Amino acid sequence: MAVQISTALAIYFVIWWVALFLTLPFGVRSQHEDGVGAPGTDPGAPILTRMRSKLIWTTIISAVVYGLGMIAYQAGYLSVERLSKLMGMPF
């Protein structure tokens, strides 16, 4: 069971994108929460986004999830037949 490089990259990209949306809200403080902010800006706007650390954490999390998924796929736990059987669908 070999996975083509384009398929592997597409799967990793989807996992990375989902992980990005999971990590975005962590550690964000709004201008309203800190009581400071520039006049005329939205009080819900973040003061410091820390995007570099979030991108690093996103890459780490998605690499771990992708690695676990590939291990499960190579072991035969993630096959179309097995997943369709678990969902009650005939293959």
Topology:
Blueprint: H1 5-23, H2 31-34, H3 51-75, H4 80-86
Helix pairs in contact: 1-3
Structure in words:
By secondary structure, this protein is mainly alpha-helical. The chain has a domain of 61 residues. It is built from 4 helices and no strands. The radius of gyration is 20 Å and the shape is elongated. The relative contact order is 0.15. The model has no long low-confidence stretch (mean pLDDT 89).
Order of helices and strands: HHHH
Characterize the main sheet.
Answer: none
Q: Number of DSSP helices?
A: 4
Shape: elongated
- DSSP helix fraction: 55-70%
Q: Give the rounded overall mean pLDDT.
A: 89
Secondary structure: number of strands: 0
Unreliably modeled segments: none
Rounded to an integer in angstroms, the radius of gyration calculated over CA atoms is: 20 Å
Query: CA-to-CA gap between the ends?
Result: 18 Å
- SS-based class: mainly alpha
> Approximately how much beta-strand content do the residues carry?
under 5%
